[in-house]
Amino acid sequence: MIRKTTVFLSWVTMILWLLVIFSLSSQPGTKSNDLSKSVTKQIVKVTQKVIVLNSYINSRKNVIIKLNNLIRKYAHVILYLVLGILVINAFILSGIRGYKAFIFSLIFCFFYATSDEIYQLFVPGRGAKATDVLIDALGAVIGMLVYNIICRLFYQKYSKKTPTSLRWEMNC
């Protein structure tokens, strides 16, 4: 019963994350840009306290303009990094392991990223970019690799201490 609940919760968590991505994609272009600019402003504010950026760029406004696009791309990577972790976790807990889990997760994330970009064609002020799909896929791959590394480290550390009957559940 616990295993079924864990599998169910892993899929539910993944679906909730898909909804987060969808809701962010549903924002009109101006609202989305305002959100990323507010994040960029906070980053610039913090970094200006640590590093004197004014010696490189004359004004804070220029910094925000230059960094905003970069922040937006990093947001894609982070959103899909988390998605990659959640998707591969759901597949592995469902019994799909090894390369199959990796390939299925990559295909799933790639198709979701593609459909998300196509959906943005219908959102005012937004558009679809093939580069965003590739950035999303890169984020998903990074997430899946991080998951794999953590899983293997966990398995190596605890496999010798765990009863044989539970080892199959931790196998990545």
From TrEMBL:
<feature type="domain" description="VanZ-like">
    <location>
        <begin position="11"/>
        <end position="150"/>
    </location>
</feature>
<keyword id="KW-0812">Transmembrane</keyword>
<dbReference type="InterPro" id="IPR006976">
    <property type="entry name" value="VanZ-like"/>
</dbReference>
<keyword id="KW-0472">Membrane</keyword>
<dbReference type="InterPro" id="IPR016747">
    <property type="entry name" value="Phosphotransbutyrylase"/>
</dbReference>
<keyword id="KW-1133">Transmembrane helix</keyword>
<protein>
    <submittedName>
        <fullName>VanZ family protein</fullName>
    </submittedName>
</protein>
<feature type="transmembrane region" description="Helical">
    <location>
        <begin position="74"/>
        <end position="94"/>
    </location>
</feature>
<feature type="transmembrane region" description="Helical">
    <location>
        <begin position="101"/>
        <end position="122"/>
    </location>
</feature>
<feature type="transmembrane region" description="Helical">
    <location>
        <begin position="134"/>
        <end position="155"/>
    </location>
</feature>
<dbReference type="Pfam" id="PF04892">
    <property type="entry name" value="VanZ"/>
</dbReference>
<feature type="transmembrane region" description="Helical">
    <location>
        <begin position="7"/>
        <end position="25"/>
    </location>
</feature>
